[in-house]
Amino acid sequence: MFANLPTWTDERIELLKTHFQAGLSCRQIAVDIGVSRNAVIGKLSRLGLTRGRTISAESRAKKPAKERGTARSVPRLQYQLLKALYEDPLSLDGPVVSERRCSLFELSKERCRWPISTPGAEDFCFCGNLPLDGQPYCLGHTRLAYRPSARPRAARV
């Protein structure tokens, strides 16, 4: 019945541009033109029409790292923490001793959150030892939780 009619005719594109320049929202433009909001957003993107402030690569590079965000520094901090943990001369040959076991109600930021036993069992509790700064677990359980990958990497060809 219906042939493959193009969604974006020349008339629709001109209407899109005039509505965009008039400041209508993508939803309003879509209703008026008879297409979906996503179609309007996609076409505006393909035409290179944008609203608002764009940040150039130069201005982004001029900002100090603190203003740009710490997204890049978080993995680095985690790496440094884990490296320090595994370089620590203390070894974990035996099980971690949980001296301050606690229930869910007693759990706080000042206690290790490593679960002991099976949830629902009568002896279920949490480790409760003093956690490392900024971590949810004590030293022994942090080493268990964040073990380095033991599997060998595939050789690159």
Report on the structure:
The protein is an all-alpha fold. Among the domains are: 10-47; 84-89 and 97-145, no CATH class. 41% of the residues lie in helices and 3% in strands. It has 7 helices and 2 strands. It has helices spanning 10-22, 26-33, 37-47, 57-62, 65-68, 73-87, 139-145; strands at 115-116, 125-126. A two-stranded antiparallel sheet has the order 1-2. Helix 2 (26-33) crosses helix 3. The longest helix is centred in the middle third of the chain and has 15 residues, at 73-87. The chain is elongated. It starts with 9 loop residues before the first helix and ends in a 12-residue tail after the last helix. The model has no long low-confidence stretch (mean pLDDT 78).
Provide a brief overview of the structure.
This protein has 157 residues and is an all-alpha fold.
Order of helices and strands: HHHHHHEEH
Q: Give the fraction of residues assigned to helices.
A: 40-55%
**Averaged pLDDT:** 78
**Poorly predicted sequence stretches spanning 5 or more consecutive residues:** none
N- and C-termini, Cα separation: 53 Å
Characteristic terms for this protein:
2 strands, two-stranded antiparallel sheet, 157 residues, mainly alpha
